[in-house]
Amino acid sequence: MRSPLRNWRRLSKPQRTEYYLRWSLYLMAVFLMPGVLFAIGTGSGAAGHSSAVQVSLLIGLATTLVLLRTFRVTLDHYLRRPAEHRRWIVLTVGLVVAGSWAVMLVGPAGDMTAKPVQFPFTALVAGYLLIFGFCPVCVGLPPRWSAPAGLGMVVAVVPAMVLAGVGAATATGFLMVMTVAMAFLGASCRSFAWLTAIVWELDAAREAQSRLAVAEERLRFSRDLHDVMGRNLTTIALKSELAVQLARRGRPEAAEQMAEVQKIAQESQREVRDVIRGYRTADLHAEAIGARAVLRAADIHCDIDLGEEPDRLPPQVQSVLGWVIRESTTNVLRHSEAARCLIRLRQEDGRAVLELENDGVPAVPLPSQGGGTGLHGLRERLAAHDGELTVPTTAPGTFRMLATVPLPG
Where is the Histidine kinase/HSP90-like ATPase domain (predicted)? Predict the structure, then answer.
């Protein structure tokens, strides 16, 4: 079993949340032993029954070890990971019931008529076994199965209490109290597992959202490429077919048609190059507003300051800075766990400077991030306009990027 502090800085927020909740369940199993010791120390009639004390301690320790493993596999099963949870649940239930019988049969019967009542400490040990043993059952089984299992555990211990000399009415009342406690702690453990699953679902939804942002970018590029090439390719096909027909008839107009095809092909090549380099107009305001909407949907606060008159910037400068905002938004969603993002545009020394900053950058890159080419692509776009992209050093956990483009004149 790994230490909860190992490689803590390399874990993402969902992984840290799971570690916290998982070890909360493990501590639930560990708390069984203090309960057994409390029962031995406070239960009347413990003196002179060293065999019962030894059996209680041995069974409590064995049950604690089994519960640690059962909690682990049942939580993995709840999170839909491969785990052999059924055999461990059966082992836990069998150990709890058998341990309760063993403790009750070797322990003192107690005097239920004495004042104050001497309730057998072994009954308290059996109660703790029932309560804590039922917790992993609630995690590994749905309520429609865990409730009958818990009721069966309680009913199976009643005959042992009667054989130990505990009155039927007293045993029934005591076990009713145990049933309420089992239901409460079982529901708490189930809620821990539910919270863990919800955190992972939210993380998966965020990952899907970042992928949708990338897919939207690809779709937008495909639409631009279709707009550029669709009409031109159709025209080239028609003119080529016309040139073939004219050539077969020996008409000189075929050469004119092929010259037009060549001209259209060259124009298409230039337009495709413009699309790839980002020369086509990308509205700066639209990209900024879209970025804020996407980030807010991901629960990231976004501050935008485009200055007083961003519309006076040349169209090509607005276009390339719009591409920077678009790509940076995707990077924030995919490669950080940001809660705050800043987009600021200013002009200084004859250059337009776009500053982007966000928090939530892990100290060590997460294994799922991999290596991307987003910054390299942005540098290529900016280089086509004699611009540059810099990533200055910032405080730990913060990422800051400056995109500068020279202004004409």
Answer: 321-407
